[in-house]
């Protein structure tokens, strides 16, 4: 899948990214694609933070995939830098065609190039297809995750 270009997202990509976030069963409940003002403000915060990288994958000017990378330097693991990968999405029209694997290979390469020692991500426990996907890529299901909504 060499016809996909990955790049840093711009504010012009926000509608497409939100569309991808809302394009599944869980996202349809959480996202509000008709009210982009909140997303545009959030994009500004993300874009101004050097520890954040919001990536899009596009073909012929159409955004088909996205992921949000956060780079976290730390003291644990002998001063390791870890990457946290969130909001991985592929357009429903492209699922099953290899774009997700291409995106994640790009993400792992980007993390390596930034000196990361570990890449971690979470996936909702109901996304069993995603779990199989990440296991196929070599991720290890090593932790139980917790959230506390404020």
Furnish the topology, listing elements before pairings.
Layout (H helix, E strand, L loop, with lengths): L4 E4 L5 H8 L3 H6 L6 H12 L3 E8 L2 E12 L2 H4 L1 E10 L8 H15 L4 E4 L6 H9 L14
Parallel strand pairs: 4-5
Antiparallel strand pairs: 1-2, 2-3, 3-4
Overall description:
A five-stranded mixed beta sheet has the order 1-2-3-4-5, with helices on both faces. It is globular and about 45 Å long. With 150 residues, it is an alpha+beta fold. It has one domain (5-136): Gcn5-related N-acetyltransferase (GNAT) (Aminopeptidase, 3-Layer(aba) Sandwich), CATH 3.40.630.30. The chain has helices spanning 14-21, 25-30, 37-48, 76-79, 99-113, 128-136, and strands spanning 5-8, 52-59, 62-73, 81-90, 118-121. The longest helix has 15 residues, at 99-113. The termini are far apart. Helix 5 (99-113) links the parallel strand 4 and strand 5.
In one word, what is the shape?
Answer: globular
How many discrete domains?
A: 1
Structural class label? alpha+beta
Query: Into which percentage range does the β-strand content fall?
Result: 25-35%
- Give the biggest sheet: 5 strands, mixed
> What do we call the CATH homologous superfamily?
Gcn5-related N-acetyltransferase (GNAT)
User: Which fold name is given in CATH as the topology?
Assistant: Aminopeptidase
Radius of gyration: 15 Å
Assigned CATH architecture: 3-Layer(aba) Sandwich
Regarding CATH, which class? Alpha Beta
Helical content stands at 25-40%
Mean pLDDT: 94
Ends distance: 41 Å
Order of H and E elements: EHHHEEHEHEH
User: So how many helices?
Assistant: 6
Q: What spatial order of strands do you see in the largest sheet? A: 1-2-3-4-5
Low-confidence stretches: none
């Amino acid at each position: 899948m060499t016809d996909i270009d990955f790049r840093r997202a711009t504010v012009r990509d926000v509608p497409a990214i939100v569309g991808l976030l809302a394009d599944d069963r869980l996202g349809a409940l959480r996202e509000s694609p008709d009210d982009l003002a909140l997303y545009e403000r959030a994009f500004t915060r993300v874009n101004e933070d050097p520890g954040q990288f919001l990536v899009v994958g596009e073909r012929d000017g159409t955004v088909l995939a996205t992921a949000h990378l956060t780079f976290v330097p730390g003291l644990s693991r002998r001063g390791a830098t870890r990457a946290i990968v969130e909001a991985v999405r592929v357009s429903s029209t492209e699922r099953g065609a290899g774009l997700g694997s291409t995106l994640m290979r790009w993400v792992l390469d980007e993390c390596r190039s930034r000196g990361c020692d570990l890449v971690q991500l979470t996936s909702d426990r109901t996304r069993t297809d995603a779990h199989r996907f990440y296991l196929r890529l070599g991720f290890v299901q090593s932790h139980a995750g917790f959230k506390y909504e404020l």
